[in-house]
Design a protein that fits this description.
34% of the residues lie in helices and 20% in strands. By secondary structure, it is of the alpha/beta class. A seven-stranded mixed β-sheet has the order 2-1-3-4-5-6-7.
Amino acid sequence: MKRGPFLLATRSDGKLRELREIFYDFHLDVIDLRTAQIDRRGEEDDLERYPTFEENALAKARYFYERGGGLPTFADDSGICVDILAGEPGVHSKRWSGLSDLPEAVVDDANNEKLLKLMRQAKATQGDRFTDAARYVSVAAYKDSSVELVRRGEIIGRVLEEPRGAGGFGYDPFFEAPELGGTFAESSLRKTATMSHRARAFRELLTALRVEGRI
């Protein structure tokens, strides 16, 4: 049974905070891309080019496994799927505004601005058919020298017209989930790392790997 180190293949500080909390519960040693001295390359922008979360998560796990010199690697692809927008932005959540090369906070603001604009347009045109229902989706992927494995997690909620909370990242201030008792931005890190879509995907994945004796 391997305890680590395992590579967490994300450059998002927000994701890393949540993932470290999850992996701590499993008593696993993890390192991030910065600690592993894996510099950012332009080709990374093309990793999430597939139409499903599963394909994108595996693409990232495979890529960083190779760049990490064969360290067992975890990655994920996640996003918000809004009913009235036919499931958009979905796999395009991070890059929806077209500004993915800018600082994370700037990109988040631009993505949320686009989300609110489209929700207001939908509310004005859809009338009684309008719904603010949405779901957060995450697919966690793992790769080592002999196995690849993925697991999916979701949490149901709705899109708010005004942000609430000062925590989280991405769409968190505008996504309210009844199971969390508020928005993701209002949730504690501990609660998020236990109940979120990402927590569900990674905890199921880690449990499966532990059952197989791989971690």
